[in-house]
Amino acid sequence: MIKLAVDVMGGDKAPAEILAGAVTFARNNKDTKLILVGIDEAFKDIEIPENCSVVRTEDYLPMDVKPTEALRRKKSTMYTSCRLVKDKEADGVVSAGNTGALLSCATFVVGRIKGIERPTLAVPIPTEKGFSILADAGANIDVKSSVIAQFGIMAVEYAKVMGIENPTVGLLNVGTEQNKGTQREKGAFTLLENIFKEQFLGNIEGNDINKGVVDVIVSDGFAGNVAMKTMEGVAKLISNMIKSEAKKNILGAIGALLMYKTFRNLKKKIDPRMYGGTFFIGVNGVVVKAHGNSDRIAIYNALKVAKNGVKNRLPEKIKEALENVRNSRDSGD
């Protein structure tokens, strides 16, 4: 049976929405056990399903906590949840808590996969063709070329878990020519080309991301996070402009009504709640970061993501991919 730890106190809407999503998930997934980690007050007047257990602890982390403080507060719900994965009492963990704090706990409590320099935050991005995986989406701001190449290796395995059989890879850059970017990007280009061969399609620009030009977009966390936040902002801008135009006159209202189904499907496609959560990949267990503003729907879907990661052996597949790259280098291929 798959076992997932849930940080009940992580997120802006904790604990009520976190518990609501977790309880609904448990009732609909009898083959999965949830370990609900929270303070005493969180579990008052809550009916716990049979396939759930409760771990009570004394502390929880605020959303503005510093990553270094997260490692000192060993009785917090986040630290305890990650410790359960470290001790093999859980296969994975889901938290909507502070991103930096969760990255610290994932890296230093769950522990890195051998050979991984830095775990990465990999995020599904909606595209014209479905979705692409962006890594890194903000966990690592300043990294070396070799680290960016590792992001590519890990994100490709994530894309495979998400159903993409032979993922193509692109390096986010300021132009498509091979000589574009700083020495870091040029170095990453060479490494990615050597690792992925024909799967690597070279540099891509920001306006290529949502076209679905590649299945995996590799970047440092600074550029990746800026790109992701820009896309979120543009999506909100378009949504607000459509609503504003629809309210101006009767023709706009009629047009909006006729397009209701199309708008509903579009909203569902770009709704971050539907993706639920994203993996911190590169650690010895499944660690899923849910959005800080997650409601019960987002938590339910984050648990689906975590279950899928465990079921498809994502950490093991990353280890195998790294070993294959090492063997390839050793053999001179």
Automatic annotation (TrEMBL):
Protein's UniProt keywords contain Metal-binding: no
Catalytic activity reported: a fatty acyl-[ACP] + phosphate = an acyl phosphate + holo-[ACP]
SUPFAM superfamilies per record: Isocitrate/Isopropylmalate dehydrogenase-like
Pathway(s) of this molecule: Lipid metabolism; phospholipid metabolism
EC number annotated for this UniProt entry: 2.3.1.274
Keyword list, A-Z: Acyltransferase, Cytoplasm, Lipid biosynthesis, Lipid metabolism, Phospholipid biosynthesis, Phospholipid metabolism, Transferase
GO molecular function: acyltransferase activity
Subcellular location: Cytoplasm
InterPro entries, per database record: FA_synthesis, Phospholipid_synth_PlsX-like
Pfam family, one: FA_synthesis
Cell division keyword on record: no
Oligomeric and partner information: Homodimer. Probably interacts with PlsY.
Protein function: Catalyzes the reversible formation of acyl-phosphate (acyl-PO(4)) from acyl-[acyl-carrier-protein] (acyl-ACP). This enzyme utilizes acyl-ACP as fatty acyl donor, but not acyl-CoA.
Protein family membership: Belongs to the PlsX family.
Protein name: Phosphate acyltransferase
Record organism: Thermosipho ferrireducens
Gene symbol of the encoding locus: plsX
